[in-house]
Write a structure and sequence with these properties.
Blueprint (H helix, E strand, L loop, with lengths): L10 H8 E6 L2 E6 L10 H15 L6 E6 L4 E3 L4 H9 L4 H17 L5 E5 L2 E3 L1 H6 L4 E4 L4 E3 L13 H4 L7 H8 L5 H7 L4 E2 L5 H10 L6 H12 L8 H12 L5 H10 L6 H13 L2 H14 L4 H18 L2 H10 L17 H6 L2 H7 L1
Helix pairs in contact: 1-2, 2-4, 3-4, 4-15, 7-14, 12-13
Length: 367
């Protein structure tokens, strides 16, 4: 699963291999090119993307950037977690370098001074969300599956998740982060995690129109004009729209044990089946990861973007030693026994003081 490139390989070779870059009609096209690995992002890919985006930012002949993933299954299914596990177990520093550089890349996309169009076809999970949520124009298709599923492997939603999740209306982002559930196109638009919907069969047509685009106004307006002819900005029947009052009720409760207890005990309208399924799902997640996620998202709601990334990095630096990630990766990716031994093993074992301890030094830094 790891895709480590030998140290002799030149940066250009890496770019040609795992990240494809070309300029057509003043648009820089960047393609994540590990389709067999669902375009999971490695440190080399982070460095390749960073280098190319910087070069294009300084190139007056490049007006805009398009981001996409190779293949039909995924834009990007997240970070290459296996390589981070191997680094930690081997006493290496790759896992530390990865988060610092990945977050810097994500932040650079948020602040990029040329419009970025992200084609979110297929899976957009974890680190993939980090790449697209700072883009100006985010396009989903009927194949799109968006999620911050980190709690499933004993981790927390990072890559700016502490910023973009709590800014989704109501408690929807808290729900998405604490449960790790996937959403499809209609919900992605409803939540503001995407801007446009385009059928996957029309992606080639979009490419042709971009290749023939006559640049007139600002590059952003020109790109919006192309999308307006092909795509729509709303879809009917977003499931989360119907569930919104229920989610707003349960996920505003004080802590994760209360949320799960109330999901099982309280019936609101006709949502009881959904509530029980959600409670069952949460019982499989790392209790510590869910509790830290809830606290992180509520703090992130009040923090500027840069501080959100700083908070995530602060948690990262403790998480490999103190969190559940290593055990989650072991159970779900290495041994595949699917029986992680979380610490604590149940929600009842959660200690609010222990959860709070992950944030201590950070609070002193901010205030």
């Amino acid at each position: 699963m790891t895709a480590q490139v030998s140290s002799e390989a030149s940066r250009a070779d890496i770019l040609q291999d795992e990240v494809l870059a070309e300029v057509r009609n003043h648009i820089g096209h960047l393609t994540l090119n590990r389709p067999a690995g669902l375009n999971a992002i490695t440190l080399d890919m982070v460095r390749g993307l960073t280098q190319q985006l910087q070069a294009w930012a300084d190139d007056p002949q490049v007006y805009a950037v398009v981001l996409r993933g190779a293949g039909e299954k995924a834009f990007c299914a997240g970070g290459d977690i296996r390589s981070l596990y191997d680094s930690f177990k081997g006493g290496d520093t790759l896992h530390q370098d990865f988060f610092v550089e990945e977050y810097a890349l994500d932040l650079a996309i948020h602040h990029y001074r040329k419009p970025v169009l992200a084609l979110m076809d297929g899976f957009v999970l974890g680190g993939g969300m980090g790449l697209v949520q700072g883009a100006d124009l985010r396009v989903v298709t009927e194949r799109s599956r968006l999620a911050m599923p980190e709690v499933a492997i004993g981790y927390f939603p990072d890559v700016g998740g502490s910023y973009f999740l709590p800014r989704i209306p109501g408690e929807l982002g808290i729900y998405l982060g604490v449960t790790g559930v996937q959403v499809r196109a209609a919900d992605a638009l409803y939540c503001g995690l995407a801007d446009w919907y385009l059928e996957s069969t029309r992606l080639a047509e979009l490419d042709q129109k971009l290749d023939r685009l006559q640049w007139h106004d600002s590059p952003l307006k020109d790109l919006q004009g192309v999308l307006a002819k092909l795509a729509v900005q709303q879809l009917p029947d977003a499931p989360l729209a119907a569930l919104r009052p229920v989610i707003d009720h349960f996920f505003a409760l004080p802590d994760v044990p209360s949320i799960v207890e109330q999901l099982r005990a309280v019936t609101i309208a006709d949502s009881h089946e959904w509530a029980l399924a959600t409670a069952d799902l949460m019982q499989t997640r790392s209790p510590l990861a869910m509790a830290v996620t809830l606290e992180m998202l509520r703090r992130g709601r009040r923090l500027p973007l840069e501080q959100c990334f700083a908070l995530e990095l602060h948690l990262d630096r403790q998480w490999f030693e103190r969190g559940d990630l290593i055990e989650g990766v072991r159970a779900l990716i290495i041994d595949k026994d699917k029986t992680p031994h979380w610490n604590p093993p149940t929600l009842h074992g959660l200690d609010a003081t222990h959860v709070e301890s992950f944030f201590h030094d950070f609070a002193q830094k901010v205030h």
